[in-house]
Write a structure and sequence with these properties.
377 residues, MFS, MFS transporter, MFS_Efflux_Transporters, 17 helices, 78% helix, transmembrane transporter activity
Length: 377
Amino acid sequence: MAATGFITLLTETMPAGMLPEMSRDLGVSESAAGQSVTVFAIGAILAAIPLTKATIGWPRRHLLLVAIAGLAIANTITALSESFALTLAARFLGGIVGGLLWALLAGYAVRMVLPHQRGKAMAIAMAGAIVALSVGVPAAALLAKLVEWRYAFGIMTVLTLALIVWVIAAVPSFPGQPKGSRLPLTHTFRIPGVAPVLLVTLTFVLAHSILYTYIAPFLTPLGMAGQVDTVLLTFGLVSLVSIWIAGALVHRHLRLLTILACALFATCTLLLGIFSGVPTLVYAGAALWGLAFGGTSTLLQTAVAEAAGDAGDVAQALLTTGWNVGIAGGGIIGGLVLSGLDAAWLSWVALALLVPALAAVLTAREHGFTKGELGSR
C-alpha cells in the first residue's frame, strides 16, 4: 500500500520539481506546464466518487491492479509525448486512476489489521506518499537537471510494473462491499463531522498546492533557482518525521495534531512572506511546512473515518475528491497569481486559505476531529 501511494503521489507531483525543463521542452510557459499537475487532479476529482461507487463491489486486489496498470500507461505516454496536449491527456488519465487509488488505499489498509491498529495502518500506507514528496520529487528535479525530465517518467513506468508483480505476490485480496451495505453520497456528506473534515482538507491542500506546484518560480526571484531540489528535500525529510508523529499519536491527540498542523503551516507562510530574502529562513519555513504537512493525510483520513463509520469508503472518496480539488485549485490559482501579480504573493494567498482551515478545526469540538479511538464504535 505504501509503495502504491509513493508511485501515485510522485506521478501526480513530479512536474513541480521540473517545471522549467518541461516548459522549455514542450514549448509552453511555466504556468502552463504547472497545469500538468492541475489536470491530474481534475481527473481524480471527476473519477474518485463515481468510480468508487461503481466498483465498490469489486474484489479489492483486482481493482488495485487495474488502477496501477492505468498509472503505468499514463507515465509511459507522458515520457514519450512530444505534444503538450497529449501530455495533458496522459496526465488526465493518470488522475482518473490516481483518484480511484487514493479512495481505495486507506480502506484496504485498515481491513488488513485489527481495529486498534487502523490508525497506524493508515499512517504506514500513507507513508509512501510522504516519501514521494521527501525523496522522489527532489530526485526527479535533480534528474531533470542531469539528464532529461522524460527519463523520470520512464523510471516511474518501470517502478509501476515492478509494483504490479509485488501486489500479485504479496497483497491479500478482500471482497468488495455487498450491495445492501452501500450508503448514498448525500447521506454520507450529511453525517455529523464529515463536512468540517472535508472543508479542512480542501483549504489546507489548496494552500499547500499553491506553494508546492510553483516552488521553482517562487524561489527564482530570491536567487535560489538552483536550490529547488534541496528546499523540497528539506520539506520532505521533515515530513517523514511528521508522519511518524501522526501515526504514533493520532488516536490520542487527533484534534490537537490537526490544530498544530494548520498553525505550523500558517507560520511557514509568514516566514516565506516576510523573510523570503533570507535563505536560512526559507529553509526554516520549508521545515515547518514539512512538519505541518507530513502527517496531514493520516490525520484527515482518520478524522473522516471516525466521523463516517460504516460509510467509510464513500467518505474516503469524498476526501480524495476534496484533496484533488485543492491540488487542481492550487495549480489554477497559483498560475493566476504568477501571471497577474508576483511570485511573492503565493505565500500570502496560502496564508489566507489556512485561516478558515484552522477555524474549522477549532469549532468542530463534538464531531469531525474527535479523540475516540478508530473502530471503537
